[in-house]
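Practice set, problem 2.
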Amino acid sequence: MRQYSADLTPPWKKPQPVPEVPADPGLVVEEPGTGFCGAVIGCEAGTVTLEDRFGKHRVFPMEPRGFLLEGRVVTLVRPSSSGPARSAPSRTASGSVAVPGARARVARAGRIYVEGRHDAELVEKVWGDDLRIEGVVVEYLGGVDDLPAIVADFAPGPDARLGVLVDHLVPGSKEWRIAESVTSEHALVVGHPYIDIWEAVKPSSVGIDAWPRVPRGQDWKTGVCRALGWPSENTGAVWQAILARVGSYKDLEPELLGRVEELIDFVTGSGGA
């Protein structure tokens, strides 16, 4: 008697075979169920460990058709010990894992505000690649005094979080009181202790021993330029020279790095409540 297959699925509806890709260290893939994207840093016991751009680790089973590689479905398999060595994942200026060929995400409703144009330029230079992937737009305030009106007009909510970076945010200061007045579940105001964003650049990165102290009541940028023998009549040009010396997060003080990463996590929902 003739035997028939029990599989009556039409050929065009059957899952198509997908490539098997060795899970070599440094390979950047996405787990579609969670949206977690990162570089392979380990592979054992049928699982793969990925590290995302924030340095967070997640372990996933290496199931068939379980990952996306440059947008294509693939099956990860254990790399052969004799296979070619893969170089360590490249990094963005912020130190996160670079995602080759990644497209900028459509802008989120959420925003990050910084206190001035120089702040925005520094954030763009170091975190620009990360922000574009996450779809986060950075805008700048005219001054911290404008913050209550901006927050009220923005009307932060669960799907439109607002993060704000403020200069010289120290307890008891005017900036501190304003920040406290607008902070809410969906609006986070953080700050660094520096009088100006210039000071968040490590002195060694700009070739000085330390940022000079400027007497109260004197314009800080002008005072710094005069103390260091820089042209005080054009602080904008001085800032561009400082910015040119910033190559990555390694040129910035930790007090700024932590605050910017905190804001990105908050606005994207990667951290906090």
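Problem 2, part (b): a different protein.
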Amino acid sequence: MTGTLVLAGTPIGDISDAPPRLAEELAGADVVAAEDTRRLRRLTQALGVTPKGRVVSYFEGNESARTPELVEELVGGARVLLVTDAGMPSVSDPGYRLVAAAVERDVRVTAVPGPSAVLTALALSGLPVDRFCFEGFLPRKAGERLGRLREVAGERRTLVYFEAPHRLDDTLAAMAEVFGAERRAAVCRELTKTYEEVRRGGLAELAAWAADGVRGEITVVVEGAPESGAEDVGPEELVRRVRVREEAGERRKEAIAAVAQEAGVPKRVVFDAVVAAKNAG
């Protein structure tokens, strides 16, 4: 019989948030695959657990090479536990390749649910949570980042992002440019840790705050786009949206068509607004 792959959530900050089953799985697994074996050692010491099985590293740099090895262990009947540094494996962390490969070989995959920065930030944000989408990390390059944001400019679900602290101000400024300065958002920093902070406000306001420098693990929650009609989006806003798309490399004709569809107005309305702004300038 084949073994079982167990994806285990680990605390995102406060170690006491570790689910009880995590200690049991760490103690009983035949193989523990960890994103960082040093952090795993600190975790097991805090939980008072000594893994009986073999401990191996499983991170972005060796994920492709180590996956076949772990799958063979699973096919041979082993119970393999996968843990990442914080949160749930596969969610912006290693794990997807191993799960897909295990499923392909008809290996049972289960999970030990645990803390999630995505759900915690959503709950604390004060923004609508009935429908949301997780966008992970944005591209590091400015042009690619703007392009990715443009793709979801009309998304009405609440958006959740992870971001590095040293890029937060640039990301919030780009969001303010694409989504609008007043779009509501929340920056959740160091969740469940000693210096936990949730900063709420408009995107431009948050970008100005972040310009002074921010530290820690960051999750950004952004309000979805409002339902818009011709009476809701004025000429200046239509022109701004076209300009954002043009600066990101889109041709004016395509930009006007995209903005019209996004705002729910005829293309002619957007075209006239762009022409009027050009003449006024």
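Answer key, part (b): The chain has a mean pLDDT of 93. DSSP finds eleven helices and ten strands in the chain.
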